[in-house]
Design a protein that fits this description.
Elements: E1 8-11, H1 25-37, H2 57-71, E2 78-83, H3 86-99, E3 103-108, H4 116-128, E4 134-138, H5 149-155, E5 161-166, H6 171-181, E6 186-189, H7 195-200, E7 205-208, H8 215-227, H9 230-248, H10 252-262, H11 279-291
Parallel strand pairs: 1-7, 2-3, 3-4, 4-5, 5-6, 6-7
Amino acid sequence: MVAADFHGVFPYLVSPIDAAGEVKAEVLSRLCEDLIGAGVHGLTPLGSTGEFAYLNWAQRRRVVEVVVAAARGRVPVVAGVASTTIADAQMQAREFEQLGCDGILAILEAYFPLADDGVYDYFRAVAEATRLPVVLYTNPNFQRSDLSLPVIERLSRIPNVKYIKDASFNTGRLLSIIGRVEGRMQVFAASAHIPACVMLIGGVGWMAGPACVAPRASVELYETCRRGDWAEAMRLQRPLWALNQAFARHNLAACIKGGLELQGYAVGAPLPPQAPLSAEGLDDVTRALTTIGALARVA
């Protein structure tokens, strides 16, 4: 395991699955190798872009196993743990720790809504199941029961709950989180936020699917923010935000997988019943990637 000081660009990895339901290990390994070569600071399998909600346990486990083997300790691997039950989430966290992960991205799935105490109990139980640092995942746009500010503050007092990845569209919420946790927890942005702005207010990086297809541009933006060169950071941010907007108009997993296919990675389409990227979406992604130099210019 590598040192648990998470910062920088953590691409949300796709989960390439073949027609027989097997993980395409060679494709995933190659993607990990190229992302590390591009300078990313960590890898996150089984995030939203990884389509965790569409995978069975054997597929999830295999995805993480492949990513840990490909990383070879060069960058931290923070694996997504998602469930509707505490017992299952704890099992996943323990298993991923045994596989050699460096951190856990804790995700709450819920069918029936939960009160704050239930949300707190779920994330606390995941943290107590592992010695690894835990990243809380909050996405009020998709989750039926989300993390409120009081719950986030309570969770920040658990020793190994060290980070939060917020996928809301509300950057003011991030500033509120930073104020409430008083340094006990660090904040990662998502593709719903403007990363340079999140870095300006005290964020430590971003965990997001677009970094899969734009790793070099993402790393350059992060390093520019770290230097405090905000004028240059905004120059770099504008074309990257256009990429985020393209993804927002279409299915995220379809966009990332479609972009990777354009770049020569045979990751396939999103898992059914999700639709593959439309012709319009493919044009949007092609233009956005070409603009940032992540795809050869077309005539």
